[in-house]
Design goal:
With 252 residues, the chain is mostly helical. The protein folds into two domains: 99 residues, no CATH class; 134 residues, Alpha-Beta Complex (Outer Surface Protein A, domain 3), CATH 3.90.930. The protein is built from eleven helices and five strands. The chain has a three-stranded antiparallel β-sheet with strand order 2-3-4. It has a two-stranded antiparallel sheet with strand order 1-5. A hairpin with a 4-residue loop joins strand 3 and strand 4. The radius of gyration is 23 Å and the shape is elongated.
Length: 252
């Protein structure tokens, strides 16, 4: 006799693949469960990736959702996470075709989903810099808002995303080239905006733990541009706190 765990696994497998045998339920009842599970999974993807759905159409999106569910079945009782690997799936599925850009579009939409469930913390103002000596500034590490997400693509996915906030948007020419994008959660909305490459580079390495000096070098910022970048960070409330690099402090 099968154990409870074996029955549960066979039931879950049969919901994804009708060819799988399952002794838990009569076939007619199992079909109802299977249809409900498939519809709920696809519905979660439709909520998370509305622009991808608009660009490919309902029929093809349904096919993609079914294939994706076979490769990446839900591992959580919370269907919010159903789309966590959708961009990875699209990369594998479309990488050799004319629609490879859809994977990066999915990455942008998933960044919005991630940002939506993160807290918007109280921001630090530029006066926080006054707490440190001038020769310490290059060793500062900025903690940024936890909802911040950064997406870079060789395709114009921000332009596609913007255009497709309305139904029946015309295609965006891929000749526009790559774009770098900031996504962040605010108290009442998700903000999505294009960034200049140097600002994106600075934010990207800063979010990865780089010091102010390291980030300035990575983004190749001169003094004037650094002032503009720091002005952006503080005016947009992206900085949560500033601390000294403890390793360098210990060596000094």
């Amino acid at each position: 006799m099968a154990s409870l765990l074996e029955l549960q696994r066979s039931f879950a497998a049969s919901l994804r693949d009708p060819r799988t045998d399952c002794a838990v339920s009569p076939p007619a009842n199992l079909a109802i469960y299977r249809n409900n599970a498939e519809s709920a999974f696809r519905g979660a993807l439709e909520i998370s990736f509305p622009v991808v759905r608009r660009r490919v159409g309902d029929d093809y999106f349904r096919q993609l959702a079914a294939r994706y569910r076979q490769d990446f079945p839900s591992r959580s009782g919370d269907l919010h996470w159903a789309g966590q690997s959708f961009a990875e799936f699209l990369t594998r599925h479309l990488s050799d075709g004319d629609y490879a850009w859809l994977a990066d579009l999915a990455r942008l939409e998933w960044a919005c989903e991630e940002a939506a469930i993160q807290a918007d913390l109280p921001a630090a103002g530029p006066e926080v810099l006054a707490e440190f000596a001038p020769d310490e500034l290059e060793r500062l590490r900025f903690e940024l808002q936890p909802s911040l997400r950064l997406v870079s693509s060789p395709f114009p996915i921000f332009s596609v995303w913007m255009a497709n906030q309305a139904e029946n948007a015309p295609p965006v020419s891929q000749s526009k080239g790559g774009e770098t994008i900031l996504v962040r959660g605010r108290l009442d909305a998700i903000e999505v905006r294009a960034l200049t490459p140097d600002l994106f580079s600075y934010l990207n390495v800063t979010a990865g733990g780089a010091t102010l000096g390291e980030a300035v070098t990575a983004a190749e910022l001169d003094e004037k541009r650094l002032s503009e970048v720091l002005g952006f960070l503080f005016s947009e409330g992206l900085v949560v706190s500033a601390t000294l690099n403890e390793v360098l402090r210990a060596e000094s």
